[in-house]
Amino acid sequence: MTGVIVLVVVLAVATVVGLVVQRRAGRVRASASVDTSDTSGWALAHVTPDPDDRVLLLQLSSPICTPCRQTAVQLTALAERPGLRHVEVDIADEPEVAARLHVMRTPTTIAFARDGRELLRVSGVPRRQELLDALDTELVDHR
To answer: What are phi and psi for residue 120, nearest 5 degrees?
Structure first.
């Protein structure tokens, strides 16, 4: 009988943890206090901003990640907006990028301002409108 009770409790805890993780996926979070002063996201993505680029959406992906494909499609479409640039980095090919940015999950999208400041992070498939709202102040000159 004790084994059954333990099993039920473990399943209940696992279900709650799963629901919490699922609910948090795709939410925009203000920039963590990650030190990227020595290397900006632009440098890690191996790109130089064009004159009109205001924000880099750096997507960290892995080859076996199904949500990464969804994220790539969504961010590529968003990058058609003036001022936004999307670059996808495969962490299987460049694991040092994930280590430098303290990324533990794919997909993770990190937005960087033109000056290299980290603006925000999204783990999972971003919520389109929430992401655009969070980037609004950086893109205000491009309306």
So the answer is: -165, 170
Amino acid letter, residue 134: A
Closest CA to 41 of 108, 106, 125, 92: 108
Q: Distance of CA 33 to CAs 79, 92, 129, Å?
A: 26, 25, 24
> Is the model's pLDDT at 36 over the cut of 70?
no
Sign of CA dihedral 29, 34, 40, 41: negative
Q: What pLDDT score does 37 carry?
A: 52
Cα-to-chain-centroid distance, residue 127 = 11
Q: 66 near 107, Cβ under 8 Å? A: no
Sheet bearing 84-90, strands edge to edge: 28-30, 118-123, 108-113, 55-61, 84-90
- Hunting for tokens 């900006």 — which residue is that? 40
Count other Cβ atoms within 10 Å, centred on residue 27: 14
Residue recorded with tokens 């064009």:
50
pTM, two decimals, is 0.77
C-alpha distances (whole Å) from 93 to each of 63, 90, 135, 139 are: 10, 6, 29, 31
